[in-house]
Amino acid sequence: MSLEQRVDILVVGAGFAGLAAVAKILAADPAADVTVIERASDVGGTWRDNTYPGCACDVPTSLYSFSFAPSPEWSHTFARQPELFAYLKSVVERLGLQRRIITDCELRSATWDSSISRWSVQTSKGATSARVLVAATGALSTPKIPDVPGIDAFSGTVFHSATWNHEHDLTGERVAVIGTGASAVQFVPEIVDRAQRLTVFQRTPAWVIPRLDRTIGRLERTLYKRIPAAHRAVRGIIYGYREAYVTVLADNPWMLPAVKVFAKANLKRQVKNPATRAALTPDYAPGCKRLLLSNDWLRTLDRPDVDLVTSGLTSVTENGVVDASGRNHEVDTIIFATGFTPTEPPVSHLLRGSDGRTLAERWGGSPQAHLGTTVAGFPNLFLMYGPNTNLGHSSIVYMLESQANYVVSALAEMKARSAVAVEVDESAQRQHNSWVDSALDGTVWNAGGCSSWYLDANGRNSTMWPTYTFRFRNKTREFDVSNYRIVPDTLESDSPESDHEVVSA
Question: What's one GO MF term for it (predicted)?
């Protein structure tokens, strides 16, 4: 499929977010002119790219999947990466989305042209013009590699967990792992038996609780296939108990000590070395940083062939890594498990609004949007997985479907009003974010005593949704047109010189 010079709706990204958007748009209007561009050679987003050993979902898969495309074929309650990747590809095939998607097509820039009320878009496969732009590039799409002095002089192998080097054999090697977050807890136990020695650099310990994973047997899968209502019921039950987490994390933080007791007992059971156990004990409330799910991470760090370094990485030499105490640890391979840049998504540097500034410039280091989806000064732009839509308890897929519903409602409203553009009022955006900030104040994500990736460069929590996900669903169920400025279509709308009258909804 080639990129047309003029499209109606352009979706950027073909991961969970982009597929949710295009699927919902086409479900509402099968004749809609929707084009999806994807910079990689296949769909799948983070579940295409992250192929490190042990990569798996940390939300129950029956919930971490589209409600409109259930699968009774999951082999585990927490699906592994290959299954999730295959699932997303199957959704594309099942819904016939292949003809809408242009792969190996990277967004270079997108600029709002007020004279014609359209987005002027540059890609690696040429230019196009779009009436509506849906940025579905995700929050976890670009790996973050710290600028460590001496890294260029290292004679061994270096890669990030999100771009795993499968051609490199770790057997018998001395391996340094930088980071102890959600990816490290999955791949470190998988590679420890191959490596001669592991040196794990921990900046801050995390609270770890067991992952209650189990194999889904053939009988259960057959039940879900023959009685879909049973599968939907399981999804509903899981959704309900995951929502209950908010009761602790946000509404009743006084209950967190009970979680700490449980997590400490789990730590004591798996780590026998008192010094290691002390180093792995956080000094902040559970949930302030992402709670990690693992059944073997802690006991792996207690092994005699694993060194846990808590003094921090300061530099890299030709043959090793140097900690803050000055000790050089000789290693053959360095693996960065340092996460991504959710509070400064790369796409924000590519989008220019009506005043000529990029989204990153407008945000100034602190992303803000109305309902995590629209931004003042950026007409006809819809963000998927935008500011303050991340979760600490449930499935982001539920949030993405909610946003997709909102986009569909916005498109319908634009059609009903013959509008060529909609733009959220600055005051509405400010009011929403003021409520978000206030709601986050007493939550563990803000008041748990840690410094996490949820906080942006200005110290604001621009990442987390502060309450139950059904409240977000309710807020995004219908397009709140009263909070928007409408640019109506006119007879002169096709002329570049025409000025569109802006009216209040």
Answer: oxidoreductase activity
